[in-house]
Design brief:
The protein is mostly helical. It contains 18 helices and three strands. The chain folds into two domains: 27-174, no CATH class; 246-429. Helix content is 62%, strand content 3%. The longest helix is centred in the last third of the chain and has 29 residues, at 390-418. It is found in: Cell membrane.
Length: 429
């Protein structure tokens, strides 16, 4: 049956999330995406766990085997890492760091990889179930499968998979558009934000009025409850705030691009291991850092303006706005770590669950950026950091410009699809 476009009234009037009228996905497509997921994970997860499928030898990423294990030992004694500059996370981040203790029979590193692999499985199953129940295509599952695989073993060596899974689950639950789903959405967003701050950006696209109040109240109450539990049981829960204030320009960020060229033009600065990352130090760095912070404030201001001037009744508005907001945060941040791409891949996958999403071209740009991210880290990272090699710099420029283009395109497409026309603003509904 051919698909008939919805009338203007059906677009602007909130309705329950119903299965799409388009035909379901073919069984062959479902089998293909499951097979690809299995093949990529059977290679990448053992490799991340230090077991090469061919040689049987390998090593676990130092981020897990040294940094996370060090945090685990401190947190296990009942306190947050007060004097560790690498600890720059909200108190909820203690949970995924401590979680490997629940896995019997494995050392810390392999237990951590097993848990992140479980998160990947649950996310993939969720994407398949939504596609099946709602009668939608498999683009979201394909994108998640390929996007994570392109990032090599890195996603399984970071606890960002857990945070991304919470954010994705929140957006999927919110699509039910019922009172209970609003509250669950708020709870999941709050839990994710207590591990890493970025999921709070999902709140920007909540539908105005009663639904926003339900979501924000649920998120606020959950945040207060989790915060109180950590404050009462573990000292130094908010020590991470002082580390965030001293952040500089990390060498992979958009703000670092001028300094990579300046190193070859007589600039007297250099890089240093600082605040848990490799950052530029020297003339003009502090000024660029202030500019990046100002751009973050401007991006947030634009999001608030978009929210005021837009119709948030569109079913795609919430996930699309979540991707736009996170992209704007990433490109204006003083730090762009490789794991930030996991966030974007997850949010884009949820957007692609909807046939009416505005973000399909953005997802294509993100997939290309993932390829260049893997070339940058770990393949060309040492050449970029130590030598400023032309190939490494060119790769970083291409990756970051792709991210900037994706952020601009995402914002433009979101605005065009949701902005109220003058006649619409006369009847706010």
């Amino acid at each position: 049956m051919p698909h008939r476009p919805a009338s203007a009234a059906s677009v602007s009037t909130p309705v329950l999330d119903r299965p799409s009228a388009t035909p379901g996905h073919p069984r062959g497509g479902l089998s293909a995406v499951i097979m690809l997921w299995c093949l990529t994970r059977l290679w990448l997860v053992p490799t991340a766990a230090g077991v090469n499928p061919f040689t049987g030898h390998g090593r676990i990423d130092p981020s897990v085997d040294k940094v996370y294990r060090g945090w685990y030992e401190v947190l296990g004694n009942g306190s947050f890492p007060l004097h560790d500059v690498t600890w720059q996370y909200p108190p909820g981040a203690a949970l995924p760091v401590l979680a490997p203790a629940l896995v019997p029979g494995l050392d810390y590193g392999r237990a951590f990889i097993a848990l992140t692999a479980l998160c990947d499985i649950l996310i993939f199953v969720m994407l398949l179930c939504v596609a099946r129940v709602a009668g939608r295509g498999l683009a979201g599952a394909w994108f998640w499968t390929v996007g994570l695989a392109v990032l090599s073993t890195m996603p399984w060596n970071r606890f960002d998979l857990l945070v991304t899974g919470l954010a994705m689950a929140a957006l999927v639950v919110a699509s039910n558009q019922r009172a209970w789903s609003d509250r669950v959405f708020g709870v999941l967003v709050a839990l994710g934000s207590m591990v890493k701050m970025w999921p709070v950006l999902l709140l920007i696209g909540t539908r105005k009025g009663r639904r926003t109040r339900r979501v924000w109240v649920a998120a606020a109450l959950t945040t207060l409850a989790v915060t109180a539990s950590f404050v009462l049981t573990m000292p130094n829960a908010f020590s991470f705030l002082s580390g965030q204030r001293s952040r500089g320009i990390q060498i992979e960020s958009v703000g670092a691009l001028p300094f990579h060229l300046a190193r070859h033009l007589g600039w007297s600065g250099t890089w240093a291991a600082k605040d848990g990352s490799h950052e530029f130090v020297g003339p003009c760095v502090e000024g660029v850092s202030l500019i990046m912070q100002a751009l973050t404030v401007l991006a947030f201001g634009w999001l608030l303006y978009w929210r005021r001037r837009s119709d948030l009744g569109h079913s795609h508005a919430l996930p699309d706005a979540a991707l736009t907001a996170t992209l704007l945060f990433v490109v204006t941040s003083r730090v762009i770590s490789p794991q930030y791409m996991v966030w974007l891949i997850g949010l884009a996958a949820v957007c692609l669950l909807r046939p009416d999403t505005t973000q399909r071209p953005v997802a294509c740009l993100l997939l290309a950026a993932c390829v260049l991210t893997t070339l940058d880290f770990p393949l060309l990272y040492r050449e970029l950091r130590d030598d400023g090699a032309p190939l490494a710099i060119a790769n970083l420029y291409a990756r970051n410009l792709l991210l900037v283009a994706a952020a601009v395109l995402s914002g433009l497409r979101l605005w065009r699809a949701t902005a109220l026309r003058p006649v619409d603003r006369s009847f706010p509904g």
